[in-house]
Hints:
Blueprint: H1 10-35, E1 37-39, E2 45-47, H2 51-57, H3 60-90, H4 96-106, H5 113-123, H6 130-137, H7 148-176, H8 180-188, H9 193-221, H10 225-230, H11 242-252, H12 256-288
Helix pairs in contact: 1-12, 2-12, 3-7, 3-9, 7-9, 9-12, 11-12
InterPro entries: MetI-like, MetI-like_sf, Sugar_ABC_transporter
Protein name: sn-glycerol-3-phosphate transport system permease protein UgpA
Family: Belongs to the binding-protein-dependent transport system permease family.
Amino acid sequence: MDKTINQKAWFLVLPVLLLVAFSAVIPLMTVVNYSVQDTFGNNQFFWAGLEWFDEMLHSDRMWNALGRQVMFSAIILAIEIPLGIFIALNMPKSGFWSSLCLVLMSLPLLIPWNVVGTIWQIFGRVDIGLLGHTLDALGIPYNYTQNTVAAWITIVVMDVWHWTSLVALLAFAGLKSIPDAYYQAAKIDQASRWAIFRYIELPKMAGVLMIAILLRFMDSFMIYTEPFVVTGGGPGNATTLLSIDLVKMALGQFDLGPAAAFSIMYYLVILLVSWVFFTVMTNLDKKGS
């Protein structure tokens, strides 16, 4: 029986394609255009070739910002992934308390990023903030505007508080998908709690954990609003991550050419790491099937 092929469905997709082209492709083309040209205003451009890319590759400023960014993302992943798994393992699996835990865990994810930064900016202030004033009263030196260690602790704890819930919810979903037969077999074999986690729960959570790692890496590597609101990149350049440095270069100094080249290399790094994670996830799915 011959089937009639109807292509009218493409008209439903066309508005989305146009929106994506307007919101992503056109700005990307503009950035590429700025990255290979120089301008002195009045809409006059001069060809610069790969000059800005070469300048950025030999810039200590960019490499220092990249080092801080990699360290921040590594710390975030090292804390949030194990903590999220631990919380998911200890959450009730069903009933009223399970629903209550899921609701409470979701609350931090609903708070806008700028509000999160404002909350922790006030929370950590020595004069009026609960955390800062309490630590100061206890004689513990804490001032995130002047002390580098305090600034780093503040933005790390802030991100952990905001995003660990995402990892916990994903891990909890992975645990819920495990059939009871696995646990019954482990009980018959008198497997220890560690053995159950190592050979049953962790392999079954591998897929969702890779998604959690991918999402948290991408978000932590592109983070801007929260640390900018809290520290502004300070003290000095201690918390000037890649995104903050890029905005300072583009809007603060109006160096559009170097900033455009910087942003393209920034984008390629994120794309490369995301592709690596995606490849690993695909291989895990193939092995699981």
